[in-house]
Amino acid sequence: MDFRRLTQPLVQIALPQILKHAGFQRSATGIPRFKNFITIRRYSYSSMEYKMIGPEHCDQVLEHLRRNFFADEPLNKAAGLCQNGSSCAALESHCAEAILDRMSVMAVDAKEQEQGVCKVVGVVLNGILKPGDTAKALSKLDTNDDAGFRKIFDLLHRHNLKYNLFEHFDVACMFDVRILSVDSSYRGQGIANELVKRSVAVARKNGFRLLKADATGIFSQKIFRSHGFEVFSEQPYSKYTDVDGRVILPVEAPHIKMQQLYKAICGGADQDEKEQSR
Ligand code: ACO
């Protein structure tokens, strides 16, 4: 009996599937990452719950963002916006504004409680964007005294106005995926993927025809594309320069450009079910 031929399908087909479902990820070398084994043992998928964010969760969500997104997101990092854990008034009001639209989703670890409240380990903050909002936000930027915040949002707003999705798609409003963030000790477990998947479902349920996201790093770009988002326009960071030709935001590799991504959705329960089972 050829033992190798018998076991080959198990090793080549079944084993990778078993490892994937157990939470392992394939690394560049093809060897499952051992690091994830430890992560999965500490935080099993079963303890993760996904909930809509309401205004009552604002403090918890901001606390999560201060410890993760504010310092880690590629543009925030390049602008030196804030140290891990510290607050940033301008960014906080930008986040709080999105929360008020009641389209945002959070991942909470039901096992990890802080004073009886489940720990927020990931968030996606989604807002409703109308024509004219971006121009208004850009004009308000001049009065903002946070230089780092101005550098970031000047880039984003000007790019969005130049490559205008409203003009292209003729919609009255858009579902704007503004902030995607996962706690650094919970990354690599598919939480961001799940948050984006749920955002698409929220947009669909609320009748939006178009979603948009300004993805600032290669990993978030990959995540959005894997959920059917397409690239509408790009801004290389090396081309965002001042009058003397100096790069305004020295974003660290491997992140080299911002991508404005969109996803057009056509309603229908069937399509919704297809999205849910992805
Ligand atoms: N290295 C390699 N691949 C990565 C990495 C990484 N550091 N991070 C994510 N990925 C890949 C995963 O392999 C996975 O690919 P797959 O679906 O083919 O398996 C995919 O991206 C999704 O991975 P998740 O585990 O769902 O992502 P995670 O939960 O780790 O969160 C995130 C990713 C949100 C980018 C996180 O690293 C983070 O919070 N970073 C700091 C904030 C940030 O940059 N946010 C995005 C800015 S853009 C915006 O907010 C609209």
From TrEMBL:
InterPro entries: Acyl_CoA_acyltransferase, GNAT_dom. The keyword ATP-binding does not apply. It is an enzyme of class 2 (transferase). Its EC number is 2.3.1.87. One of its GO terms (molecular function) is aralkylamine N-acetyltransferase activity. Gene3D superfamilies: 3.40.630.30. Pathway: Aromatic compound metabolism; melatonin biosynthesis; melatonin from serotonin: step 1/2. The keyword Acyltransferase applies. It catalyses: serotonin + octadecanoyl-CoA = N-octadecanoyl-serotonin + CoA + H(+); serotonin + acetyl-CoA = N-acetylserotonin + CoA + H(+); dopamine + (9Z)-octadecenoyl-CoA = N-(9Z-octadecanoyl)-dopamine + CoA + H(+); serotonin + (9Z)-octadecenoyl-CoA = N-(9Z-octadecenoyl)-serotonin + CoA + H(+). Keywords: Acyltransferase, Transferase. Residues 180-229 form the N-acetyltransferase domain. Coiled coil: none annotated. Belongs to the acetyltransferase family. AANAT subfamily. This is aralkylamine N-acetyltransferase.
